[in-house]
UniProtKB/TrEMBL annotation:
Signal sequence annotation: none
Key words of the record: DNA damage
Domain UmuC per the UniProt entry, residue ranges: 22-139
Domain of life: Bacteria
Name of this protein: UmuC domain-containing protein
CDD domains linked to this entry: PolY_like
Pfam family name, one: IMS
SUPFAM superfamilies on file: DNA/RNA polymerases
InterPro entries associated with the record: DNA/RNA_pol_sf, SulA_CellDiv_inhibitor, UmuC
GO BP term (any one): DNA repair
Length: 497
């Protein structure tokens, strides 16, 4: 096993992005963490609030909020699901990721380590990261700021021996007792007899040393990914231009995609909410629903659709908070990769992805009601033979049932049908018994008789009873047309692609 520890030393401060500088987080009247401006003025952790204000009268104070920190750790754990599903949340400020199974997928130890550290920073958190074969060793190395990976359990005594005792989070009494033994580092501690340490400092302390060195198992409770995704992000400042919300939206999207990766699914719809600033006239949140042509967990694809919507969104008031919600994930078919590492063809290959992107962009620009697909209906009259349905890109893998359904649909069509059907048949001139459309038409196939429909003749907005003879015709401009003749004359009804 290989554990990556992410310790977030500035988490209590970073969960308040809108705090003015200089600022500090306090608990029980003592400073927990301060920003760079406050630290440069001498405001350090452990300082009393009165002393901090003496150093820096303009210092902004905020009480520590454990609820915000837990929510931030949960959001970060969802994001980390994009790298591994084996995650442990250790409040108040640490995450553990078991990454041994992810090394080949991300190109090895160094690329994976850098991607996680960089991604954590892009999520808005400062992290101290470390890699080790045991979870406790990874934690201690991260607390010490030791970024050098430790990949071999045999190296643990040497690597841990370089650490100060401060990383062990001992009580003041235990530290004083160890000092009386002449212990100044973990290396000094490891040279002492384990049985004597257990008698003087407790069996739990000796067991922790054994777990850190891999001599005892160290089972950890795994993070349980929520059934539904619902996260929010406070904005560092008031945002009046909707397009500026895209940056914060991307942070939530990457967390969503990590959650989806851990749940092995995708979404075809998600919902953004933008909460507005409080004032004399409180406004309800602006809701933005994103819909996709097929289930996806591609962060770039979701962010692209969000950007298209934000370009056309006008905020009624400045936004202060952004939230993202998604229901239970849908099954997401896998990719087929060829010898060159490219996705295979078919509906699920590059063509399917580009088609989905086109449909989503058109929906974002024109509105969901303006873009639809057609579904066949068991009806012989052409106007009633199809109905609009939400556009969905076909799945990458067809089931046998789907193939049978497609074959049955093809068998029901006894004559060719055009892809482009006019909304209303267009009347054609007739010269010497021949229909005219930019000149005389030459009839290539037909007639195909379509008649009846008396059952809806009296209903409004219906086709009613028809009696038509359909032909495939070609014009002088080489256009392939679908025309029919009825008692009222000749009509153009469709155009072949």
């Amino acid at each position: 096993m290989l554990w990556l520890a992410l310790h977030l030393p500035r988490l209590p401060l970073e969960v308040f992005p809108s705090l003015p500088s200089p600022s500090a987080i306090v608990s029980r009247e003592r400073v927990v963490v301060a920003d760079a401006a406050a630290v440069s003025a001498g405001v350090l952790p452990g300082l009393r609030v009165a002393e901090a204000w003496a150093f820096l009268p303009a210092l902004a104070i905020q009480e520590r909020d454990a609820g915000r920190e837990r929510a931030a750790l949960t959001r970060l754990a969802c994001w980390a699901g994009g790298f591994t599903s084996e995650i442990c949340v250790l409040p108040p400020q640490t995450l553990l990721l078991e990454v041994a199974g992810s090394l080949r997928l991300f190109g090895g130890v160094a690329p994976l380590f850098e991607r996680i550290v960089t991604g954590c920073r892009e999520q808005g958190f400062t992290s101290w990261a470390a890699l080790a074969p045991t979870p406790l060793a990874a934690q201690w190395l991260a607390f010490a700021g030791d970024r050098e990976p430790c990949l071999d359990a045999d190296q643990l005594p040497q690597r841990l021996g370089r650490l100060p005792l401060a990383v062990l989070d001992l009580s003041a009494q235990s530290r004083a007792r160890l000092a009386s033994f002449g212990v100044r580092s973990v290396a000094d501690l490891l040279r002492l007899p384990r049985a004597g340490l257990a008698r003087r400092l407790g069996a739990d302390f000796a067991a922790d040393l054994a777990r850190a060195l891999g001599e005892l198992p160290d089972p950890r409770a795994r993070f349980v990914f929520p059934e539904r995704f619902s996260e929010q992000l406070e904005l560092p400042m008031r945002v009046e231009n909707a397009t500026a919300l895209g940056f914060a939206g991307r942070r939530l999207i990457t967390s969503l995609c990590g959650w989806l990766a851990a749940r092995r699914g995708g979404i075809s719809e998600c919902l953004f909410e933008f909460a507005h600033e409080r004032g004399a006239r409180q406004r309800s949140a602006t809701v933005l629903v994103l819909r996709f042509a097929g289930a996806t967990r591609d962060a770039e694809r979701i962010a692209r659709v969000l950007g298209e919507h934000l370009q056309r969104l006008e905020l009624p008031a400045a936004a202060e908070l952004i939230s993202l919600r998604a229901e239970a994930p849908e099954a997401l078919p896998g990719h087929t990769v060829n010898l060159l590492g490219e996705y295979g063809g078919g509906a699920g290959g590059a063509g399917g992805e580009s088609l989905a992107a086109l449909v989503e962009r058109l929906q974002a620009r024109l509105g969901s009601g303006s873009v639809h697909a057609l579904s066949a209906v068991a009806e012989h009259r052409p106007e009633n033979a199809s109905r609009p349905v939400p556009p969905r890109v076909p799945a990458r893998e067809r089931s046998p049932a789907g193939l049978l359904a497609a074959a049955a649909l093809r068998d029901t069509s006894c004559a060719p049908r055009p892809l482009w059907l006019l909304a209303r048949p267009q009347i054609l001139r007739e010269v010497a018994g021949r229909p005219q459309c930019g000149g005389p038409l030459r009839l290539l196939a037909g007639p195909e008789r379509i008649e009846s429909g008396w059952w809806d003749d009296a209903e409004p907005a219906t086709v009613g009873d028809v009696r038509r003879d359909y032909f495939v015709a070609i014009s002088l401009r080489a256009e392939w047309l679908w025309v029919f003749r009825s008692r009222a004359g000749w009509f153009l009804h469709g155009v072949f692609s």
